[in-house]
Amino acid sequence: MKYPTPKLVVSACLAGHFVRYDGGTVKDPFVEKLLNYCQILPVCPEVSIGLGVPRSKVMLYWKGEELRLIQPSSGKDLTEEMLSFANSFLNELEEVDGFLLKGKSPSCGVSNSTLSYKDPEGKTFSHRTKGLFARKILERFEDLPVEDEKRLKDDRIREHFLIRLFSIARLREFISSARSISELMEFHRINKYLLMLHSQTKLKEMGRLVASSKNFEQAIREYSKLFKLALKKSPSKGQYINTFIHMYGHLSSRLNPKEKGHFAELVVGFNNGFVDKETILELLRNWSFRFEEEYLQTQTIFEPYPKELN
Ligand code: SF4
User: Fold this and answer.
1) Atom of ligand 1 at shortest range from CA of 107
2) What are the residue ranges spanned by the domains of the chain?
3) CB within 6 Å of ligand 1 — which residues?
């Protein structure tokens, strides 16, 4: 299986740069492994706005409804510098496939994990929120995967992030060389079951688009938008079962009654939490080889990203 190389914007401290406030970096075994498969675009927004290494800590506080970034030791309000850096960085950014940022940071924190305060001295805790730089990314790239290293410790979140990151990279690489609607049809075909898994509605919409488009450039633009939207939500158990059954439909007429019974038992087991999805996918893949069912063999759902990242 040939994998694309995702273009990933990464907090520089997660990419091994010694840019943290204390002069350190962040060691995360999964992130280190992932970065080997990506083209990395490292950024440290705090260093980029002129704060040195090491530096006094910065923090977030609420001035009424407004979130401000402040350095309590110097009393400097860095909000405008940070927002202006975020805007210019994102304006100049080449096309990327996702973002992996450092959790809990007042600048980079993307999930609600960063402490915020009610006063500029950081004496009274308010609540956990998102960092200032990360907010701009979330506002402007709502169709791309944006996560922090802490959330990627959760198996389901990590898998969904990887599926989106590598699929969007595959789409970008495809677009860079595609020239015709028939190539788009083929791309759509190999992604059919991965798309079905995430959104049957979007899959149908994309199928109609590919089948009826006359203008290639316009089709690619609309297809890209729908593709990213389709993968946005993590699939439910029901969506897995529906997809397994559709895939099984390519093979069932050539299976014997015992094999059919075995498949049905596995699906029930999956529904009840005793069988994992990989077991069913592997069985379907084996059968697709045995019956030389090429339509299934080439589906990206079997290996949407390098298995070494599991
Ligand atoms: S979390 Fe962000 S701002 Fe802080 S050191 Fe890392 S890259 Fe720089």
Assistant:
1) 3
2) 7-153, 178-191+200-232, 237-309
3) 11-13, 19-20, 44-46, 102, 105, 107-108
Phi, psi of 249, rounded to the nearest 5 degrees: -55, -25
Residue nearest atom 5 in ligand 1 by C-alpha distance? 20
In the reported structure, the alpha carbon of residue 18 is separated from the centroid of ligand 1 by a whole-number distance in angstroms of 10
pLDDT digits (tens, 9 = 90+) for 218-240: 999 999 999 999 999 999 999 99
Q: Which amino acid is at 125?
A: F
Tens-digit pLDDT profile for residues 258-296: 999 999 999 999 999 999 999 999 999 999 999 999 999
Residue 39 bridge partners (DSSP): 7
CA angle 94, 100, 101 (to 5 degrees): 110
- Give me the chain's average pLDDT, please: 97
Pairing of strands 7-11, 66-71: unpaired
Provide the token pair at 227.
């593709």
Give yes or no for a contact between 18 and 108, defined as CB atoms under 8 angstroms apart: no
